Amino acid sequence: MGTNVPSDEELAASLEGGFTSEYADVNGVRLHYVTGGQGEPLFLLPGWPETWWEYRKVMPVLAEHFRVVAVDIRGMGGSSRPGSGYEKKSMAADIRALAEHLGHERINIAGHGIGAMVAFAYAANHEAATNRLAIINTTHIDDSYQNFRLMPKPEDAPPHRWWLAFNIVPGFPEQALAGRYRIMIDYMLGLSLVNPDAVLPADREVYAHAYDTPEAIRASQGWFQAYQQDIDDFRGYGKLSVPVLGLAYGGFYDYMNRVLPTCGSDVRVIEVKNTRNYMVEEQPETVAAELTAFFG
């Protein structure tokens, strides 16, 4: 698998806006990022099981207003996969070091999924270096995650988040999925796309190729295996003073609208229609418009 998958350089060059694929050695990790556009810096952090390519549909629009920096977070895609440092607080320090490396004292930052947790941790730990924060479909992990049932009851709202437990099992996922990660990509997208064609087979191959080795799977597990420390860190965070935007869908919008305002003093939550978890790819016009208005 993956022999015909374009390189990050080719993918970056395929986007309008003069994007280039770059690398930086910062904070003990080699980070891959794709950058383009002009204006205030806007960092975009992806979620699992995706890469920076998750933002391909919104990057050209955002690049008309901002200096866009879409980052493969520690352990993802073109970035290196060290044996530790997957706590979201540590990963936020990666992003802070990258911003400094690029000459940005303060940045706007947005994240989805795991990337949303890193973005939140960035604002919580580096508030003076944060202009504004946008969170897409994920709040920072908290104690509520420990109430998810391994065996759901009939009244439990879907989805059954079995992959949280699967990804903290040591040694097994890479044996089960190495060389066939496309199965996981298709499962997760199938679970949460209203329109399956929002992520085409070629895009799914980009993601599968990024996760297809035992090393890549182990690194991605690190994000989940750090969750207990992330919960402990979250308990120590005060209320954010920077402006926060939440974008969420349906039932999760109701949850985010309850939880996110307790985490900051200036919080707005917006519901995005006709989508579920992968709204950046499924409703890119809405996402790009909301991010442009908020960060602009």
Report low-confidence residues grouped into runs of 5 or more: none
Percent of residues in helices comes to 25-40%
Largest sheet at a glance? 8 strands, mixed
What are the secondary-structure elements, in order, as H or E? HEEEHEHEHEHHHHHHEHEHH
Secondary structure category: alpha/beta
From the alpha-carbon coordinates, what is the Rg to the nearest angstrom? 18 Å
Number of strands: 8
Major sheet: arrangement of strands: 1-2-4-3-5-6-7-8
Name the overall outline.
globular
Query: Helix count?
Result: 13
Q: Looking at the chains present, what oligomeric state does this protein adopt?
A: single chain
Overall pLDDT confidence? 96
Any overview of this molecule?
The protein is an alpha/beta fold and 296 residues long. The protein has 13 helices and eight strands. Strands 1-2-4-3-5-6-7-8 form an eight-stranded mixed beta sheet. Helix 3 packs across helix 4 and helix 7 packs across helix 8. The mean pLDDT is 96.
Main features:
296 residues; alpha/beta; 8-stranded mixed sheet; 8 strands; 39% helix; globular
